[in-house]
Sequence to fold (701 residues):
Amino acid sequence: MNKLLTYFIFITLICSSCGSDHTLSSPNGELQISTYIDENGQLLYSVSFNGKSYIKPSKLGFEFANADDMMNGFEIVSSKKETIVQDYEMQWGLNQFISSKHNQLSLHLKHIESGRLIDIVFRAADDGFAFRYVIPQQKEKELIVSNEHSEFNFDEDPMSYWIPGDWEIYEHLYNKTRASEINALSKVNHPNLAQTHIVENSVATPVTFIFDDGTHLSLHEAALVNYSGMTLKKTGETSFVSSLTGRADGNKATIPTPFKTPWRMGIIGKKATDLLSSNLMYDLNEPNELGDIRDWFSPHKYIGIWWEMHMGKSTWDYGMTQDMGTWTDHGNAHGKHGATNKNTKRYIDFAAKHGFDGVLVEGWNTGWEYWIGFEDREGVFDFVTPYPDYDIEMLQEYAKSKGVSLVMHHETSAAPRTYEKQMDKAYALMQSLDIHVVKSGYVGPLIPKGEYHHGQWMVNHYNNAVQKAANYQVAVNTHEPIKGTGLERTWPNWITREGARGQEFNAWSIEGGNSVDHLATMAFTRFLSGPMDYTPGLVKLETKLGPNSDNKARSTIAQQLGQYVVIPSPIQMACDLPENYEQHLDWLQFIKDVAVDWEQSIPLQGEVGDYVVWAKTAKENENWYLGAVNDENPRDLEIDLSFLDKNQSYSMTIYRDSKDAHWNTNPYAIEIENKIIKQTDTLKVYLASGGGFGAIFEKIK
Fold:
């Protein structure tokens, strides 16, 4: 068993405030954080990169509902500098082995009037910066946070790529504006969102900025534990302040003392692909607490009874009636239920035939008749009781006989208290059936009212669910989640999550589908927060749904294949219907062949919102896998292959757009080419409008 290796090297300087050096530089010297106390005793910091200021002096502090505010009137009691080096292994992800080196400055502050103490810890790395608050033991056992004031004031007006700071959901289309033009309140009450709550002009993180000199900066948070999720509220043309998801009493979080807040972080680079190369978020998280989970979880591909519901071919519900909390079959089943024994066996047979490891089945358990559109959804779902036409024990036994496993589904309808009451027995059922992956969902406005999906109460629910699942050898794929903040390093059974607008919006959204540049934007925004269960792999792009019955995935087939390399996740769905794949076995072959578990990942080219190209090598073999997604603008690429082994020939199979391909007029125009290629060659590829490519480089022995 591979063991996680983590070590720290400390070089420490402890000094008083008088004459101290309160400037911190990254190991390579390119990034610098400057801190000082102003005449009001307010702590400020600024960030420069390559000799230029990008974050001008910005204030830090807290307001509390039950204690004196910590905003000004500070003095620096002491400071400490140290260098932190880490070498660690990720059990799955973009890169298996990660090495990092950060310089750290801890400022020990005293609030002069009250005598209260607080530390603020800064990190400077070659790929970015971070800071967090460390609150020591106080006379109050708990502090109630009214507001956290962590400012990010820019020196200029950069281009920004953002979604609104919605307290309930992240499933908005991305916007491209100058920072000064951000208007989150214009996105209130989107009719396709089952839950949404936008209260101010703030943006969700990660949010990415491009400065006029080409410098790229993405702001986010890391290690979100026992705290509310952070948005960034506009306070001026180019100024932002941390704004925490609230609750009914108007406050934001209740924290024990002592307490460490999540890290506030910024990845910075000279070009777009520098953002993709960063491991800063994972560096800031705690080491693995679960040990090696690879004896019961392996990255894999799966299919499922899911897309057919979005297409209207079948339904989640069966047609039962709830009487005094019990679901009863009165013989009025409507006959369109998707999760039947017969249909599930059909999917299992397809999975076994084509080498898929899992079959997700949604709508298997009672409660779907009352799951959305109702105020009181507590007590609706039963997470261990199947519908009459679904025999979970028999089906899992059938699946295992064919080398496949069911993937569990737990939809909570945003009634997490009901889920918490049943969680142990639901996970225990999975363990007894040798099912190790669950997709959990939280669709709808959160119950209880006054709490929100991204607030402290739900942050703790999501985190607790993942930790409890580990006790039953269950890996969790969370939908309608809290955003990723790198906790998969600490709890590696949190394998993926949704947390953005996924493939299903192509079926029925009022916009006719996701925007053409959606994935090319998420590559440099949402994907910076970790893996996403986007559910790629459509081979029938038109759905004939939506307000005008003309919805479609705004991509070419080649892009659908390229998504398997571009979208980060250790589990990848082939989301289309088995009968559609049977008509296109040549396209299906790439989905079958592409890997999902990576040893090393290299972003080769890309620009935010335009396109991205990745190269990844798998743990299971010595192959390289390349993939790209493109926006609406066709482009010709020349790709440097210097990452390949020297003096080694590769057999390349590439699935790429034909010259006449176009997402709207000719999305099925694809070429499959086989060619011998070497490190010294240049790969020339055409990307159509909404296009992309997927390629496999296999070593010739």
